[in-house]
Amino acid sequence: MARNSQKQKLFNGRDYSWMQFNRRVLEEAEDPANPLLERVKFLAITGSNLDEYVEIRQAGLLQRIEDGYREPGYDGLRPDESLAILTVDIHDFVAAQYRCWNSKLLPEMRKQGIRLLEWEELSDEARAFAKDYFQREVDPLLTPISIDPAHPFPRVLNKALCLALLLRAKRRSSGPQVLGVVTVPRALPRFVRLPASEGVYDYLLLQDLIAQHLGGMYRGYEVLAQAAFRVTRNSNLYFEEEEARSLLETIRVELHNRRKGDSVRLEIETGADPEIVERLRVNFELDENQVFPSDGPVNLSRVMFFCDDVKRPDLKFQPFTPKPLHLSRKSTDIFDELRHHDILLHHPYDSYDPVVDFVQRGAQDPAVVTLKQTLYRTSHDSPMFQALTEAGATKEATVVVELMARFDEASNIRWARSMEDAGVQVFHGVVGLKTHCKLALLVRRDEDGVTRRYCHLGTGNYNPVTARFYTDLSLLTSDPQITERVHMVFNYLTAHAEIDDYSPLLVAPLTMAESFLRLIRREAEHAEAGRPAHIIAKMNALLEPSVIEALYQASQAGVQIDLIVRGLSILRPGVKGLSENIRVRSVVGRFLEHSRIFHFDNGGENEVYLGSADWMPRNLFERCEVVFPVRDPAAVNRIHNEILPAYLADTVKARLQQPDGTYVRASKLVKDAPAFSSQDFLMQLAEGKTDLDAIPVLPGEKPAARPAPKKAKAAD
What's the pTM value of the predicted model, to 2 decimals? Predict the structure, then answer.
């Protein structure tokens, strides 16, 4: 017990931290300051977030319990203790989701002429349309099933929406009740658009339309009750690599198995007949606390539909056009520009087009002889994919595709096969490690006869679609040290050929963890010697105990530490004697904060790194990741004067983490501070509507709260 108690003093719970993050997203759905359809989108995001969490994290806890694991986690809780607390939290959260939908969003949507109607509310014209739509589009896709000795319970696919029916044969009014199941077609939208007057958007739930026609599908039966339900299955993906014929084939088989994994959650309409609930619960072998009533549409992630279907720009965020890249007047092309200086891009404020153009130029330019790239996730019609496929016909093209990018495995398999057919050398990285680094390397015979390497290194995926609403950073460079080491990273990925020193890069799982610990310890040494010492780190999640303990030690040595962590953080900030010099903030807004930035004051000779890795065990030890230095003075100053200060000054979308793991809006804690949104400011800056002087100095701000605009120290 003493050991568990000690852990609880050092760390908050991972699951608790995740629930806190999704609650911050739900707060955006509840916030009337956001446009209405954007609020609907935030609610949909909480639904998809919760789906992934249940089918991965909660399912993993169930597996650990079944396998007999008793070892406590970061917070000192055993898996069974964590699951008990988590289940209560999820029930509370689901209730909050539907309160938001029913009490806040639906009434506001009605006021704006966006109506989700019950069958009884439909006009004669709307009913006629709905009946015709059912006959034309829906009925041909339906397969009604009744469960009896000749018809066993059907295999319900993961997260498929279904209708469960309680039936009784009409000719045997006193006979047994039979269960029926109808799967709602995935190929159709969950909301049926109905005819309505101009400016009005009327919809009917597809499941309600099907429910009106159940009698026709089950002739000879009386429909006693019906309810929509959905089952979530364990989607952890396990396989034995040594026994696999090939990684690609193994992933394909496991994708098939995932659809049939053990059930971990049953969602069913509130008010469903208890007999239906109990029969489904028993069939799916679930405990009562794994049944979640849905007081509205089952699967709230589907309400994202309204954001696309309703053409009301006034109910959405104002359009934003990213800033294009303009080359210097003397530069003839991107390669000429990079021979003179690096290019730093901050997406989505800076256009992602230069990154796409860089890869496309690599594929089309006859002076480029070699093209190498990693792919983790990209869009189905990605110009990156087209360019790489084109490169396979004319030059040495190598692509490292991560097949196990969660929930993108099927797409990545298709891309891998297509590229192989086009002549691209396709690799799947190092066995046992996900390839998560974001690298593109071109080798070019330049006009002066010199063969040079050019690189793109990024914090986000090569996906032009998500680059419009994910914040990420890109570095384009021809720095000989960096590009040569990127070449060595590709050798590691394709041949497992390791070298002892990848500096100036930090490469996981080889050198990154120890390098970060060394950099943190160095700040502590500077603080103890009375030199400037400050760490600012921006990431998606903070879970690695060794890094957190090093931060605690640095705090105790006097290092000022500002952490900008979008999602999970198990660190306990502001604890006297432990972490009183550490502040943790989370920014949740219009764009998904995805960039990773690591700033170390280094006694006044500051260093800045960017990369693909969070401070999580999986990033530091179970993936191939790359963190890289920013050396160009203009790029360093941009991070120091613009990007980091904006996030640290946010009082609108920032929440500050408390020692117990809860979060409080910065506006409530920073008294008399002006309202300042980092994302709004960065958009206005990109549009030329503001300048750096607009970043406020907050009341009571510590002298070390912002990095000084100094030159980056050259690497040894």
Answer: 0.91
